[in-house]
Amino acid sequence: MSNQREEQIFTVSEINKLVKDILDNIPPIWVIGEISNCKLHISGHIYFSLKDENSQISCIMFKSYAKNLKLKLENGVKIKVFGDIGVYEKGGVYQIYVKEIREEGKGELQIAFEKLKNKLFEEGLFDKEHKIKIPEYPLNIGIITAKQAAAFKDVVNVLTRRAPFVKIILNPAQVQGDRAKQEIKAAIEEFNEYNNVDVILLVRGGGSIEDLWAFNEEIVARSIYDSHIPIITGIGHEVDFTIADFVSDLRAPTPSSAAEIVIKSKFDIESIINNLRQRILKDIIRNLNRREDLIVNYKKSYGLNRFVDIIRQKRVDIDRIHLVLTGTLLQEINDKLKSLTFLKKRVENTNYRNILKRGYIISRKDGEIVKSKNDINLYDR
């Protein structure tokens, strides 16, 4: 029995080859399902998954067939594919090698997405007037994403490189799975309660429509809308759009782009400061030159020259008045001096000493001065 089992042992490559041979005998078939995790490779090949409610299968459409494709492939779209089922032996993965694709309709997730999108649009949650302006120079930046996610590391790397002075606060939350929507909602509300950040980055790396579905939940959309702190979303890749992107105050195509948008680099800030300095200096010089021209023109103006002439005329008038006043005052002084001289002579003439010098005498009678002829008699001595 054991020898028989040893004879039936296969290598991995042999098993994959055996399965490939079996699948190669299956003729090309049509398979219907919903597109998920669609990616256009740089080579021109298209990779995606086809899924239904219970299962999924990988698909590849090579460039030779993809170049003739008229249909735009989007996650959530229901399609029919025609092709061969085969095995990629190196990876041990079986997949459909697609040759033709036809649109079948919208998948359930896509229908749910559009239904909620239309509902929130009608309620005005996407209106521009409700968008909060992103601060130009935030100093405290909040991040909502999974702690171990590559998106978190990418965002931190960009922020620390561009602006090492900013403070980064992570409020971790699951971004995929059943609990994700509640944790994202709680993280947004917590930032708003503590009000300790200037802006919030809600980020997640790429994935299928199922992987990103937490960001299409109504509870998350309304939490973003109710936030008084501006929110920037960076979810998935550039081609991925979620309900959260439409409600947020600003959408970035990727997590790294969100980090680049939210803060200017220190070199940009230095450049802005230098430009402002140059502008201020030019404004100062321009104003000084303008004022200098005004002064020169004013000095040449008739009004100023007339004012100068008036001052000069007033000076002449003052000099004339000075001369008049000076002459009058001198004349008056001379007249007063003459009067004083005349009075002085009169006083001197009435002085008894001067009278005596002219030959007059003082007569006394009985010791009293004789003042009149009536005071003496003939022969009095």
Automatic annotation (TrEMBL):
Pfam families registered for this protein in UniProt: Exonuc_VII_L, tRNA_anti_2
EC class of the enzyme, as a word: hydrolase
A Gene Ontology BP annotation from the UniProt entry: DNA catabolic process
Domain of life: Bacteria
GO molecular function: exodeoxyribonuclease VII activity; nucleic acid binding
Annotated EC: 3.1.11.6
Domain OB-fold nucleic acid binding: residue ranges: 10-102
Organism phylogeny: Bacteria, Bacteria division TA06
Presence of keyword Transcription regulation: no
Name of the molecule in the record: Exodeoxyribonuclease VII large subunit
Keywords linked to the UniProt accession: Cytoplasm, Exonuclease, Hydrolase, Nuclease
Domain Exonuclease VII large subunit C-terminal: 125-347
GO cellular component: exodeoxyribonuclease VII complex
